[in-house]
Amino acid sequence: MIIPNYFLFLLLAAVTAADVVVDGVLKNYSDKQFLDFKNRYFLEWNVDWIRKQVLFNVSVATSGWVGIGLSKDGTMKNADIVIAGVSFNGKPYISDFHTDCDRNLLLDAKQDWRLLGARETLGRTSLQLSRPIDTCDSDDHPITEDLLSIIWAYGETDQLEYHNDNRGRFRVYLLDPVLHPAPTAKSLPRWKVSTKTKVPPKETTYWCTIHKIPPGINRKHHIIEFHPVLENEVAVGHVHHFLLWRCQAPKNADPRLIFEHLVSYPGEECYFNDNHQIPINLCRTMMYVYAVGGQGIIVPGDTGYPFGEFPYYMLETHYNNPEKINGLQFEAGVELVYTNRLRSNDGGTFLVGYDLLGLFMVPPASPNFDIQSHCDNRCTSEMIPARGIEIFAAQGHTHGSGRKMKLHHFRGGKELPWIYKDENYDWTFQTTRPLQTERKVLPGDHLTMSCSYDNTWTNTTTPSGFASRDEMCLTTIYHKTPIPYYTCSGQIPQETLLRLVGVQDVTWDQITQRRVVTSPPALSGKTLAEITDRRVFWSKQLRATIAAVTVSSPQVIACPITTPPEDEPVENVVILARGYGDQTLMGPTPVPVRTPGPHSVSGFPYSNKLYARVRNCPAH
């Protein structure tokens, strides 16, 4: 039933939880947050896994009604809402509602929110609430590992009326565990790795700079926290992501000869550059990744990232400047918290997903287009030690059309529970997520990264690529036991896709950062985007063919080793031809790639028994 506003006050006063424990107090909440800029609406929450419920403690600077709800998109459409408070006679009240697609407020036939405690003191209302993780109620949202928005509002009186500016949303993964800083973290040393580069007036810039650790660190320490540094809202709006890499010289080379002079070097384009000064191939031990909307990482208490044995680091920053504004300059980077008290495990980081140089295409106006990328058993057998690695956190990464992400895990002909899942993914909220349970990956396992896109917001084809208007499909894996690899990726051979749109071959143009057709001659010189947007008729059959090819074609899998082997000859290292002191070191070829070799693998392993999560809901 639709509840008219004038009737709501009477209803709220009448619907009171029968099992209310007034002034009940719940302690040990795992996370807390002020939800508004005025610090009037305070929320704490915790997951009670034994009773399979989420507990909320709400404290709001009002003597009126208090509302809190769960929404997929942060709006009042199809939301799950509870309204509660303490009435004028001191009695608590609560009602469980939902809204339809027109934002009409409807009373739930099944009241699933419980009021455990309520108190109004000195103009502040405090409520303790609980809700089952899965109510098995079609009017409610099951709380899963997917992203949710907590929507909130409050009134100045118990008369329910439009909430004016007393409302908002807060995005959160409610079921994710919350890691807190170590008690000694505030007193530990910190190192800020940042740059204040003048952002070029072009859409996409990947900028690399070299940094040296603080003086006096001459033995192994552990990094236990990473925190992004973004100077202001301009920085937040123009830094799409950045990566921190550790640099390592070959065994017989003095790292000062290679890196020291680059510490004062202002930096350069990381990839779209034919005249490199920075030996990027020697800075391929991944440490930390920040992306839009992300937050810091607190490493589990038994793990730390090795720090101090290698003095040089590289910061790679993706600046997104679609308006091509001239004169942008701000500080961006990461602050590390480190300790000389070593923990039991060393940490490591690597990427799983679609090869960054590989091609995929999302046809125009596609509401639900899937791609997959594989890290097969041959790569994991080479990459992962016999005892395996334990994944403790993961971060999904797409650009603006990404809507769903999932990291599949196969072993012994069976799909195990997903390592990472978000079927309500928001590319503007790319936070690193601690796993509920650490996941062990063994040599011989198969990992598949799947992404789903919706580009109905644009009238063009969306290709894979480096620009924010292009797409990616990646997951950053944080784990125990470092491995000398930073990526395990797959891609469909590009000729498989190109021939479907009448193209034989393309090349990459460094200036435009676009794929340019080289064959057939009739299309030579045109960008691939020009072909797919203006010359291709996107029939239902072509769309279906590309969709099928994208998820079922064999892929080329690669997992190149990234740290220089101890026996690597110094002369095989590409560096700038400058010396340290009176010495000079230079060489003509890059460090060789040691890998199982690019190889083909079947697509998604459908022959495996697939994992399916079962809801424990009674049959109706």
TrEMBL record:
Record-linked SUPFAM superfamilies: PHM/PNGase F
The entry lists its GO molecular-function terms as: copper ion binding; dopamine beta-monooxygenase activity
Q: Does the keyword Secreted apply?
A: no
User: Where does the DOMON domain lie?
Assistant: 39-155
**What is the top-level taxon of the source organism?**
Eukaryota
Q: Which InterPro entries match?
A: Cu2_ascorb_mOase-like_C, Cu2_ascorb_mOase_N, Cu2_ascorb_mOase_N_sf, Cu2_monoox_C, DBH-like, DOH_DOMON, DOMON_domain, PHM/PNGase_F_dom_sf
Fetch the Pfam families from UniProt: Cu2_monoox_C, Cu2_monooxygen, DOMON
Plastid among the record's keywords?
no
Specify the signal sequence span. 1-18
Similarity annotation? Belongs to the copper type II ascorbate-dependent monooxygenase family.
Q: Write the protein's name.
A: DBH-like monooxygenase protein 1
Q: Which organism is it from?
A: Orchesella cincta (Springtail)
